[in-house]
Amino acid sequence: MMSESIELAVIGGTGVYALAELRGMEAHSRVTPYGQPSGPVRVGRLGGHRVAFLARHGEGHSVPPHLINYRANLSALKSLGAKRVLALNTVGGITAAFGPGVLGCPDQLIDYTWGRVSTLCEEPGSEVLHVDFGEPYTPQLRQSVLAAARQAGVALVDGGCYGATQGPRLETRAEISRMRRDGCDLVGMTGMPEAGLAREMGLEYACLAIVANWAAGAGPDVGEVITLQDVLDNVASASAGLPALLEAV
Ligand code: HPA
């Protein structure tokens, strides 16, 4: 039974496995019609607000991007009463405005993933959905996130195109050059099918991208090797303003 509604659901990405600021946390572990989510949904209070948190890769980062049960994750949040989902996505930066440490709120995306369960219409007999996806992120929620960032004094780049790649390997320099020509500003592995499924489920959805590194060949040091440790270190420093921003959302 839901006593109070959840005002915001947050899906944490690489390097964001918990929201330590959540108070009075309850854990909800539930199997959904789509199977098992990546882990428990933790519901608690952030400031005066009821917030749900789910670690996309599992709390021990055990689920790679292509094996995440995106449908179950969103379904678990929806079944707890969430209507607005803010996705935290760790990304590489492609264009000049998106260097390591930058936070961005993209307004477009291109999907380069393949072989993932990417729709609710997977099962025979399920209703065929052709949802509008011209604006892949909910404009109203994006505006709330941008306003919250201003209120919290957190620098956030408004707009940009997120390119979703298959992973789990990082990209080649040629792949990033192609993505730049396509119009991508950011590259990550988990933005799709999550955004499309959220739209099919009728959830408001926006992305808060945390730039952890220059994408392959995009930074000043073209031969730079990207390590997971660099990614985690940069996410940790870029995330300092997150609790204040989330509370304001
Ligand atoms: N490419 C894809 N996904 C990522 C990257 C990257 O460079 N950095 C963090 N997630």
TrEMBL record:
GO terms for biological process: L-methionine salvage from methylthioadenosine; purine ribonucleoside salvage. It is an enzyme of class 2 (transferase). Pathway: Purine metabolism; purine nucleoside salvage. The keyword Nucleotidyltransferase does not apply. Keywords: Glycosyltransferase, Purine salvage, Transferase. The keyword Transferase applies. It catalyses: a purine D-ribonucleoside + phosphate = a purine nucleobase + alpha-D-ribose 1-phosphate. Phosphate binds at T14, R56, H57, T190. Homohexamer. Dimer of a homotrimer. This is Probable 6-oxopurine nucleoside phosphorylase. It comes from Novilysobacter ciconiae.
